[in-house]
Amino acid sequence: MTVVRRSLWDEPRPPHAPPVSRLDRLLVGVLVVIALVEGLARPGLAGQPLVTALAMALMPVLLWRRSRPLLACLIGWGAAGLLSILQIASGSADSGLLSLMVILVLLYTLVRWGSGREVTVGLVAVALVATLGMYAASASLAEVVGGGLFLLLFVALGAVFRYRASLWHRQEREVRNEERLALARELHDTVAHHISAIAVSAQAGRVLVRGQPERAAALLASIEDEASRTLAEMRDMVRLLRDDEGGGAAAYAPQRGVADLTALTRPAGTPAVAIRLAGALTGLPRPVDATLYRLAQEGLTNSLRHARGATTVVIEVCRVGEEVHLRVTDDGASAPGPRAEPGLGLTGMTERARLLGGSVTAGPGPEGGWVVDAVLPARITP
User: Fold this and answer.
1) DSSP for residue 191
2) Residue 324's closest CA among 359, 294, 299?
3) Where in the chain is the domain with CATH 3.30.565.10?
4) Which superfamily does CATH assign the domain made up of 256-382 to?
5) Locate the Histidine kinase/HSP90-like ATPase domain: which residues (predicted)?
6) Which positions ≥6 away from 223 have C-beta within 8 Å?
7) Using alpha carbons only, what angle is made at residue 261 by residues 255 and 264, rounded to the nearest 5 degrees?
8) Is 71 helix (H, G, I), strand (E, B) or coil?
9) Secondary element (H or E) of residue 268
10) Distance between alpha carbon 321 and the CA centroid of its chain, in Å?
């Protein structure tokens, strides 16, 4: 209970409160006129001029109901308390105007837009004023219970709309975070793969440029091709981000899958890439097919960047029952020393697999080199 009270007390104001609009000002003007007409129509009301003037002066407070909910509520319900005191002093059975019921709107907006401290203080003040009003009206037990439930209705409405708005904003943040993570994975997988291939090719070219200029020229051509593909994929991604409708040719371009793994083979002078496919790999769901390609691409990137002295990278994909297994291995030397923390590439691979209900493991192989194993479901259950 203490934790709940402390949580309520520390609750901040909800974000994105709407500013005062032209419709708000028009509403206040209409309510001022209504209060004036009602006061003139009831000349026998106790304290009629004061009550009418008080009601008319109260209406502009509605403009503060979102920006200063506690102040607006205290002013509105303070006016109601003043009328109750006037009613007790005059002995009148009725000293209020129906237009003063707008203070119920202030009660709603207090709960909807106030902070935890403001809501707590405001509800205590409202309860005191309501008790004073019940005493002034000599209300029966049934009237006290009915009036209390009526006030709680507005409190509940404010809490419900506050919770719904909070839930919507939280879901919106979650969607944005998922989109941000997906974009980060795509950028890393695309750019890191091609840049790693360019770096490896450039290093090999420096070795071959003197003794084997023909092979060095082939490596330069592969660097140009990798750079062009990187630029094309980056343009497609930027086009998707800039397109409000998410349309365009890039949006409908088919994603690469298992059938495109041969595009990952490297030119001479760099670690050779061997592709081995087994089992029924056609007809896989598009998310699974695309994820297999991305996982293989990132596994190859890790080998290109980190494998010491590797001459061959093997990418194996096979279907076993209702699962698809991917393995990326190289014949490089395992790095000495303690195992490094997972980098962005392995983190992105793990996230991709988990989104489909699969898993990824990576570590040194028993015979050296590095091994990446991934298991994905061959079917996606809606």
Assistant:
1) I
2) 359
3) 256-382
4) Histidine kinase-like ATPase, C-terminal domain (3.30.565.10)
5) 291-379
6) 198, 201, 202, 205
7) 105
8) helix
9) none
10) 37
Amino acid making up residue 208: L
Nearest to 307 by CA among 327, 328, 333: 333
Q: Give the span between the Cα atoms of 250 and 181, in whole angstroms.
A: 20
pLDDT in tens, 194-238: 676 676 667 666 666 667 777 667 767 777 776 776 777 677 666
CA atoms within 13 A on the CB side of 361: 6
What's the rounded Cα separation, in Å, for the pair 244 and 179? 15
- Is the pLDDT score of 126 beyond 70? yes
Task: Work out the number of other CB atoms within 10 angstroms of the CB of residue 252.
Answer: 7
302's tokens: 């890790």
Task: Map 294-311 to HEC letters.
Answer: HHHHHHHHHHHHHCECCC
The 10 Å Cβ neighbour count of residue 345 is 23
**Are the C-beta atoms of 286 and 257 separated by less than 8 Å?**
yes
Nearest alpha carbon to residue 79 among 99, 63, 108, 64: 99
* 3-25 per-position pLDDT tens digit: 455 567 778 888 888 889 899 89
Pairing of the two strands 359-364 and 370-377: antiparallel
Rounded to two decimals, the pTM is 0.55
Q: Which residues 6+ apart lie within 8 Å of 84 measured at CB?
A: 129, 132, 133, 135, 136
Structure-block tokens of residue 96: 């209020």
Give the number of C-alpha atoms closer than 13 A to the C-alpha of residue 315, restricted to the C-beta side: 26
Q: Which residue has the tokens 């203490």?
A: 2
Q: Which two tokens stand for residue 362?
A: 């990576």
DSSP state of 341: P
Do the beta carbons of residue 365 and residue 312 sit within 8 Å?
A: no
